[in-house]
Design goal:
Helix content: over 70%
Shape: globular
Distance between the termini: 20 Å
Strand content: under 5%
Number of helices: 5
Number of strands: 0
Structural class: mainly alpha
């Protein structure tokens, strides 16, 4: 699987998780229905850019999640991992 396909798969996995009701632990970590939808739509946009072959670059996931009030937990960690993968995928495609 190439780097971009791997990133798209990770985004799809996160999207599946974000379509489910939030667990009590995630609510304690700062997740709300509102920021759940914001994060879902944000990553859907990133996914579309990747599929179009557009350069995405650094998407600053940690900063965004912090600004949205999300402080810790598995969804945050998974989201940050995708951010890192997106950044790395852009580096691997540069000449």
């Amino acid at each position: 699987m190439d780097v971009c396909s791997d990133v798209v798969k990770k985004i799809d996995d996160l999207s599946s998780q974000l379509l489910k009701p939030l667990a009590a632990g995630e609510l304690k970590n700062g997740w709300t229905e509102k920021n759940q939808n914001v994060v879902l739509n944000f990553f859907k946009g990133i996914r579309e850019c990747i599929l179009k072959g557009e350069c995405v670059g650094n998407i600053h996931v940690s900063r965004r999640l912090d600004a949205w009030g999300i402080g810790e937990g598995p969804l945050l960690e998974f989201s940050e991992g995708i951010g890192q993968a997106v950044e790395n995928s852009g580096k691997s495609e540069r000449p």
